[in-house]
């Protein structure tokens, strides 16, 4: 059998640490987690659920920084190595096309992706309730706002890295105004990043760690076996929600068709920094870097709504695990 491969450019300097000899985990944690403390900025309470990409041979990203008034904001940041980050002390001042949508009541859980000629940013945007905010940048200095993709209430807008069937494509998770006790992943297409339609159901909660709601995580990864989507799942315990993550393989041409999906999680709250924080028991992935040449995948996830952490996996092992342990 040929080994599964990822598409895209090689990334020889991907942040990486080999699996410890004592571990047999398919996805393992960085030994120096967390990589970003909540108080990195003079005014930050917590920095988590954030998105990173390669930028000019180095790294850049958009970070969820909740400030000490506990306002949810997104900031840009840069890094030489993907591990040590310089994050702008002020939130991104988006250039807006329309004063009606310019006030950003709150912004959280950003994702970033390079598509064709620029980096697009999506986030959960406060506009009469949570919806999917959109924008783009060429240089991580100037950011332009686009129209919100959907009506409220929606969260976890995650773009695909290229057009599908001639259209831009995005996952989202329709929700409510609060701490939504339900949630399915849907897929939508747009000819212009402005008007979204052709909505398709992707997946619903299915028991155990993913019994309450599910939401797409990092930008989906194109592989020879289909789209590899890491996604978070939520379980409702006596003490509230617990966020873990698993993965699914989706059809390349019809990404709303789920071929395989993990029954066990890949990573769930276990370490102190995942179990203790502003929201205990949360592992929430929002970005992944990939090196197709070596098969390495590096996942950035928020821990306990307080700090940012890293986990690692090999594409062939992750895909094998998803297939062997599918619902
Ligand atoms: C979700 C979002 C995430 C957060 C999670 C756990 O609804 O608000 O930003 O990590 O809850 O609190």
Name the shape in a single word: globular
Instruction: Give the radius of gyration.
Output: 18 Å
Regions with little confidence, pLDDT below 50 for 5+ residues: none
Q: What is the CA–CA distance across the termini?
A: 23 Å
SS class: mainly beta
Q: State the major sheet.
A: 5 strands, antiparallel
Rounded mean pLDDT is 98
* Residue share in helix: under 10%
Q: How large is the count of helical segments?
A: 2
What is the H/E order?
Answer: EEEEEEEEEEEEEEEEEEHEEEH
Can you count the beta strands? 21
Beta-strand portion reads: over 45%
Bound molecules: beta-D-mannopyranose
Tell me briefly what this model is:
The chain has 327 residues and is mainly beta. Helices cover 4% and strands 46% of the residues.
Report on this structure.
The chain has 327 residues and is mainly beta. Helix content is 4%, strand content 46%. It is built from 2 helices and 21 strands. It has helices at 272-275, 315-324; strands spanning 28-29, 44-55, 58-67, 72-79, 86-87, 107-115, 118-126, 130-137, 143-146, 154-159, 168-174, 185-190, 197-203, 213-216, 221-223, 226-237, 240-250, 258-261, 283-291, 296-303, 307-314. The model has no long low-confidence stretch (mean pLDDT 98). Bound molecules: beta-D-mannopyranose (BMA).
């Amino acid at each position: 059998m040929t080994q599964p491969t990822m598409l895209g450019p090689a990334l020889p300097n991907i942040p990486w640490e080999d699996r410890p000899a004592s571990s047999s985990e398919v996805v393992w944690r960085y030994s120096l987690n967390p990589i970003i403390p909540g108080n990195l900025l003079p005014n930050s309470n917590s920095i988590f659920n954030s998105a990173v990409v390669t930028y000019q041979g180095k790294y850049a990203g958009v970070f969820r920084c909740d400030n000490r008034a506990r306002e949810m904001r997104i900031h840009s940041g840069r890094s030489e190595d993907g591990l040590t980050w310089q994050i702008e002390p002020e939130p991104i001042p988006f250039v807006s096309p329309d004063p009606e949508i310019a006030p950003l009541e709150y912004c959280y859980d950003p994702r970033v992706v390079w598509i064709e000629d620029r980096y697009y940013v999506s986030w959960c945007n406060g506009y009469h309730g949570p919806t999917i905010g959109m924008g783009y940048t060429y240089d991580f200095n100037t950011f332009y706002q686009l129209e919100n993709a959907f009506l409220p209430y929606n969260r976890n807008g995650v773009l695909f890295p290229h057009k599908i069937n001639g259209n831009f494509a995005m996952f989202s998770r329709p929700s409510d105004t609060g701490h939504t006790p339900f949630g399915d992943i849907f897929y939508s297409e747009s000819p212009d990043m402005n008007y979204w339609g052709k909505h398709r159901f992707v997946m619903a909660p299915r028991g155990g760690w993913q019994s309450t709601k599910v939401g797409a995580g990092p930008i989906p990864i194109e592989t020879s076996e289909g789209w590899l989507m890491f996604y978070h799942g939520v379980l409702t315990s006596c003490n509230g929600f617990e966020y873990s993550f698993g993965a699914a393989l989706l059809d390349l041409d019809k990404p709303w068709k789920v071929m395989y999906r993990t029954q066990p999680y890949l990573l769930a709250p276990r370490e102190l920094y995942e179990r203790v924080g502003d929201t205990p028991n949360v592992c929430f992935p929002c970005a992944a870097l990939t090196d197709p040449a070596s098969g390495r995948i590096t996942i950035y996830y928020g821990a306990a709504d307080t700090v940012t952490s890293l986990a690692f996996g090999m594409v062939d092992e992750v895909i094998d695990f998803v297939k062997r342990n599918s619902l």
